[in-house]
Amino acid sequence: MPVPSPVRSRPCSVATALAALLALGAPGCTRGTVYSRSGTLQPTVAGRPAATFTTLEQAKAAFSRSQGAMTATLEDAAWIRLEPDAPGAAKRHPHYFEGLTTFQIQVATDQIVRPTQENYVLEDSTGNRVASTPALFKTDLGEGFGPRVLTEFTVTFQHTLSREMRWIRLTREGVGGGTVTWEFPE
To answer: Could you tell me if 73 and 104 are in contact, meaning their C-beta atoms sit under 8 angstroms apart?
Structure first.
């Protein structure tokens, strides 16, 4: 009976090892954290105190929503106050401090997108519907598996959150789209 050669068994071992490495790497293929498409939170509006969080990451996660390629974070004092250099917050978030509804958005795709040529629509429970387009964007070309192009930008709407609103919905009208919702308790 012939004895198997170690050389013959090596390709199987290498293939098995490669498959295991790829399987381990698969969960990290997407860019960044993926959040729920909708959820409840308490925004900071006139007459209401800001929600309290221990860390900036925890606070931003509460205000972030994802669907498809888009992740949007609603700007709010609850997490802005936890950023380093609190006195510089008004310079970093000028539209928020003017009372406008503002989102930090990331779009992770396999191809370059141009958010300045896309439409973003904000709707709320009181019947308001406004559209906006970002003025600037930044694109990072990554490597590896999954979406390799990360585009980041801010979208500001001529819209102010109020206590009467029960929800707001942001829709990306671009390739791949995406709609995310923030629900506000009474």
So the answer is: yes
